[in-house]
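Exercise 7.
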Amino acid sequence: MTNTLVFVDLPTPDIEATSAFYQELFGWKINGKPWGSFHQVVPGEGLHLGLWTEQEQIPDPAPRPPQPRSGLQPRTYILVDAPPGEYLNKAVILGATALWEQSYWEEFDGHHASFLDPWGNQIVMWWKPAS
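Solution. The predicted structure, written as C-alpha cells, is:
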C-alpha cells in the first residue's frame, strides 16, 4: 500500500503533562521514545499518535524556535466508545477548552464534539451509535 497515513504527532511544550492529560481522558498507553522527548501514544486499535516537545522537535534534525500558533489548526479525529459529550466534559475538567458541544453530522450519520487541549491541539471526538 502506498501513500498511507502512518500517524499524527501533536506538539507540546510540556510532554509529561500532555501525556497525563490523554492517559486520563482516553485511557491511552504512552511509550517514551525516548521518555521526555517523544512519546508514542497507543490508542488501542488503529493508528498511533505521537507527542513531541517543542524544544527538541524529534525527529527534526534541525529544530527551530517554537512559533506562536495563530489561525486555524489541523484537526485530529478520535473515534470514541461513548457519546462525545461525555468525553468533552471530562476534557474541560482536565483543562481543555470546549470548541463545540456534541452535535449530529447528518452526512456521516454520527455525533461529534471538539476541544482544544491545554497546549492548543484541536481534537474532534467522533461516535456513531450501533445500529
